[in-house]
Write a structure and sequence with these properties.
mainly alpha; two-stranded antiparallel sheet; 2 strands; Growth Hormone, Chain: A; single chain; globular; 15 helices; disordered C terminus; 73% helix
Length: 429
């Protein structure tokens, strides 16, 4: 009863948790001693967790426990993990290494939920490509609400943003148990160790188009890490107030483009939609670079607004594509594999690369007065050219390599044999 509104609330809270701290967290962590490479590890421990846990958790949701139960348990564990992290932030002389280790424990429980909410939503709707974007947009609204709440509370650079995430995580944990029952589709089937490490889902990579898509998704997440890791600090140093609220402009644009996504998919197909998303990544970082030196606010804001196209046209489209191509009995694992390659491996490498590049572009400013501490300045204009170039290379490689062939290796209960998922229109499920 009222399934779609319940799924919308699920998405709202899921992304409220993430949005409460993920973008502006560095603003606070910088005040307790974090530096460039520390941030690199902060934003890499999550991806490491994303590589470890999604396959195993996806297998559990596919074979043993209803997805909504798995979701609730993970969020309650995550609530405890984030609380422990805050206790280490408030001690005298907090250790970035210790905090990052605790963040890792939190992320082990949080990252699988990104895939599981997709599974719960897609398993309880009849028309994925039309209805899922309408549900997923509430996740974006949740992220916006989190950012606005953080700025309203004046928590852009305080620990309160983490407390807000803790409260939302507890609510999500309890709410998950009320969601529509999503039983494991492969319950009772023989279990093997290969399933635990996701080899069933890995078999989907035999399809050339899906393989290219997955490699492209992995590579594009390397420059993505720069945005989450640096954008809030970038606009703060540019003199803009309330960075959490400003960053929500990206999510506001997500709402618009999420609503437009079904129409765009119908008119232009998967390949063109994915390419438009990639082109937007190049444009975003280029605008950051060109706007940095002279403090051109409209170019910085424009780069943030492009986030809607970057995220919706690539990641949400990719989630729909993965759901279409995977047989029902391994869809949770398939979504977990997507998380592994993107938010896991891609973001892990991207976070470390971003940390190294930030350090290389950080200039020490000598103190002009006796006893004063030396300052630091990041050369933002040249820094942002790096992810722009990375995204451009990935976009060109994807454009030539993604063939648009049918995934005819897969059985009829997956959509692959009947659907051209490369360049043509997606049919109804």
């Amino acid at each position: 009863m009222l399934t779609t509104p319940r799924l919308c609330i699920m998405m709202f809270i899921q992304f409220f948790i993430w949005g409460a701290w993920y973008v502006t967290g560095p603003n606070y962590l910088e005040t307790i001693g974090f530096e460039g490479e520390d941030f690199g590890w902060t934003y890499s421990v999550g991806p490491i967790a994303g590589m470890i846990s999604p396959f195993l958790v996806g297998m559990i949701a596919d074979r043993f426990l209803p997805s909504q139960i798995v979701l609730g348990i993970l969020h309650l564990i995550g609530t405890a993990g984030m609380y422990v992290a805050t206790t280490f932030m408030t001690v005298e002389n907090p250790s970035p290494d210790t905090i990052n280790i605790v963040f890792f424990c939190f992320m082990l429980s949080f990252f699988p939920t990104v895939a599981i909410v997709n599974t719960v939503a897609m398993s309880n709707i009849a028309d994925t490509e039309k209805t899922f974007p309408m549900i997923r947009v509430f996740g974006t609204i949740g992220w916006i609400a989190a950012g606005l709440t953080v700025s309203w509370l004046g928590a852009d650079a305080t620990i309160d943003q983490f407390y807000l995430a803790i409260g939302a995580s507890a609510v999500m944990g309890l709410y998950s148990f009320t969601l529509p029952n999503t039983p494991p589709p492969a319950k009772g089937t023989p279990f093997s160790a290969s399933q635990a490490i996701g080899l069933d889902a890995m078999s989907l990579l035999r399809d050339r188009s899906f393989f290219v898509f997955m490699i492209g998704s992995f590579l594009i997440c390397i420059p993505l890490a720069f945005y989450y890791q640096m954008a809030a600090r970038f606009i703060t140093e540019a003199g803009m107030e309330k960075p959490a609220a400003i960053m929500t402009l990206g999510q506001m644009s997500e709402v618009l483009f999420m609503l437009a996504l079904p129409i765009f998919l119908k008119l232009y197909g998967i390949k063109t939609t994915l390419l438009v998303g990639m082109i937007a990544w190049v444009a975003r970082y280029a605008m950051f670079s060109f706007g940095a030196d002279d403090g051109v606010a409209w170019m910085m804001i424009g780069g943030i607004l492009l986030h809607g196209i970057c995220y919706d046209f690539f990641f949400v489209t990719g989630q729909i594509y993965t759901d279409k191509i995977a047989p029902p009995e391994i869809r949770s694992q398939a979504q977990g594999m997507l998380v592994f390659f993107t938010l896991g491996l891609g973001m892990f490498i991207g976070a470390l690369v971003a940390g190294k590049i930030e350090t290389a572009h950080t200039v020490i400013i000598e103190a002009t007065e006796p006893g004063a501490e030396p300052g630091k300045m990041v050369e933002w204009a040249s820094l942002w050219l790096k992810p722009a170039g990375m995204a451009a290379v990935v976009m060109l490689l994807f454009a030539f390599a993604f063939s648009g062939k049918k995934a005819d290796e897969f059985p009829p209960d997956g959509a692959g044999p009947e659907v051209d998922l490369g360049s043509d229109t997606l049919p109804n499920q």
